[in-house]
Amino acid sequence: MVMIYRLRPINREHESWERSVIAAQIVTLLAHDCDNARRRTARATAGSNNTMVPEDPTVRFSKLVPLKSPWELDEVTVCELDPDQTKGMPGNDIVLEDGNHLTADWG
Fold it and tell me: How many other C-beta atoms lie within 10 A of the C-beta of residue 76?
């Protein structure tokens, strides 16, 4: 079931914010669960500073993966159900604290 989730920064000084095109703002969006909300927000806010690192540094030819977005890190942002489930939300939009909107795919 799709619900309204809110991602709230709890560590606004974390280095991972360099990998997001928006500053540490509260965001609200429709999602299936917190993991889905985090993934959708991370994809919609991915900046150009997404450094690739080995998935397993101990393996010689380990697959390269991007460093995590602040939206995917529990120690940087908190995900919670929005208490006001009655407000209308555009299906593909992420609503930022400053009132702006970003479009996010459901993939």
Answer: 22
Contacts (Cβ under 8 Å, ≥6 apart) of 4: 28, 29, 30, 81, 82, 84, 85, 87, 89
**Nearest CA to 31 among 59, 71, 3, 68?**
3
Residue numbers in the chain where pLDDT is lower than 70: 48-50, 52-53, 107
Query: Rounded to whole angstroms, how far apart are CA atoms 41 and 94?
Result: 7
pLDDT at 107: 62
* Non-local CB neighbours of 52 within 8 Å, separated by 6+ positions: 64, 65, 66, 67
Q: What is the DSSP letter of 72?
A: G
Exposed e or buried b per residue across 35-60, where buried means at least 16 C-beta atoms within 10 angstroms of its C-beta: ebbbbbbbebbeeeeeeeeeeeeeee
The confidence score (pLDDT) of residue 46 equals 87
- Our measurement of the distance from residue 107's CA atom to the centroid of its chain's CA atoms, rounded to an integer in Å, reads 13
pLDDT of residue 105: 79
